[in-house]
Amino acid sequence: MDSFSSWLSDVDSVVWGPFVLIPLLLGTGLWLTYRLRAVQFRKLFSALRLGLLDREDDGGEGDITQYQALTTALAATVGVGNIVGVATAISVGGPGALVWMWITGLVGMASKYSEAFLGVRFRETDRQGNMSGGPMRYLTKGIPNGFGAFLGWFFTIAAIIASFGIGNLTQANAIATGLENSFQIDPWVSGIFMFILIGAVLLGGIQAIGKITSGFVPLMILVYIVGGTVVLAMKADQIPHALSLIFTDAFTGTAAVGGFAGSSIIIAIQMGVARGIFSNESGMGSAAIAAGAAKTTHPVRQGLVSMTQTFIDTIIVVTFTGLVVITTGVWDHGEDAAGTMTADAFSTALPGQWGGTIVSLSIVFFAFSTILGWSYYGERCAQRAFGRWGSLPYRMVFTAVVFVGATTELSTVWTFADLANGLMAIPNLIGLLVLSGLIARETKAYLDWDPRLKANAEQCAAFLKEQGTDWR
Fold first, then answer.
1. Is CATH 3.20.20.120 correct for 1-467?
2. How far is CA 316 from CA 177, 228, 279, in A?
3. What are the tens digits of pLDDT across the range 320-344?
4. Cβ(334)–Cβ(259) under 8 Å?
5. Which residue windows are coiled coil (predicted)?
């Protein structure tokens, strides 16, 4: 087992090293930012209004509202990576890793927009009458000559595997561990409870997942941010020094201090990018699966709504975690302390057991929501691979694996989850580069026509007819 774990770690280091995914992720995000004329900055406020205030695109076709598609994607991404993953990045790469998480998020918003756009643009209606979109569809349909089919199948298989790693085992284990540490609940009890609850939700399909996440996800994020705000208010005098550390160390590396072994610029970049993508999943293609089910009148509109998920995840939630860990001074306790670092940070500023309790409950809720979101991603890919008959067996196995994750020690699963993420991202990023011309052309045409995103369903239908684009 030790040799397998070592081999897995070596492969993961190559995939996430300076010659594969790091340049591919950042390069794709930068290229799409250029091709789309920085759409993530130009249209951010309009996109936030469309997703969080308007919430529904009246007259649009789909299975769930734009808001529910957004919260389903948020449910899948706002998970343990936002708490433990951020602490791990800083404990290994130093405070400067946070800058590279921000950069990954900002350029990743263009990638997230593009994959969500394509998820709607090439979606299909399955035999049950439900919308089905995502990289397994747009890679195959958008890229001809067999290469697209290869990329689509590569993504499909990698996503199914990843759904049991990032979306299940690690999250279930985090829930069970958190409940045991804070409330002395036996992991077997947690496992049984999750088995029943997840199974019940999955029976309702995407509609049930969308309804639960639309109410559940905003509340869990709000509770965590309020707790973080209190900590930062109490440590306000440390914020200027923390920001100085963050921006200085991002480009110089971090010297050894306390239990921190020191890091180079390369390590800071590697940890920031790897944990950034683990947190917000921009470029992985997963959120495009949820976007493909959204009720929308045009792919551009859902693409804009979906890109706000990366902004909320990385620029807001990740930033709160990073600043709390750095301002409280626990960031230099070493990599071995990463698992409890955020809880320790909250505990240093909040009275009694409040700090540890808030973090433990946040981990439980974040992880549970991630399981829900990824169950849908994995099921859609299973249907693509095995047909409509693949749905029920997948749900059964996925639910059973939740119990396994809750009751088993998982020493190598985090490395496995990182690797699976990378294998998903590679075919999707290649596809985004190949299809970047289509994305840029149709995005420009729509935004030139409806710059304020106020067009109704009838107007959008007329525009699509005029453009000769029948994406439905």
1. no
2. 26, 11, 12
3. 999 999 999 999 888 888 878 898 8
4. yes
5. none
Name the 3-class secondary structure at 296. Answer: strand
| Domain edges within the chain | 1-467
* 274 has a pLDDT exceeding 80: no
CA–CA dist 194, 115 (Å, integer): 31
- Give per-residue pLDDT as tens, 191-216: 999 999 888 888 777 777 877 777 77
Enter the pTM of the model.
0.91
Residue 219: how many other CB atoms lie within 10 Å: 10
Q: Smallest Cα–Cα separation from 363: which of 181, 162, 175, 143? A: 175
| 64 dihedral zone (left: phi>0; alpha: psi -120 to 50; beta) | beta
Here the tokens at position 289 are 């699966």
- Where helices occur in 122-204 by DSSP H, the ranges are 135-142, 147-164, 170-183, 187-203
Cα→Cα distances 276→16, 173, 338, 464, Å: 12, 21, 16, 36
Using DSSP's 3-state secondary structure scheme, residue 454 falls into coil
Which has more confidence, 17 or 107?
107
Crossing angle for the helix pair 239-252 and 319-327, to the nearest 10 degrees = 100
Distance, in Å, from the CA atom of 447 to the CA atom of 42, rounded to the nearest integer, reads: 11
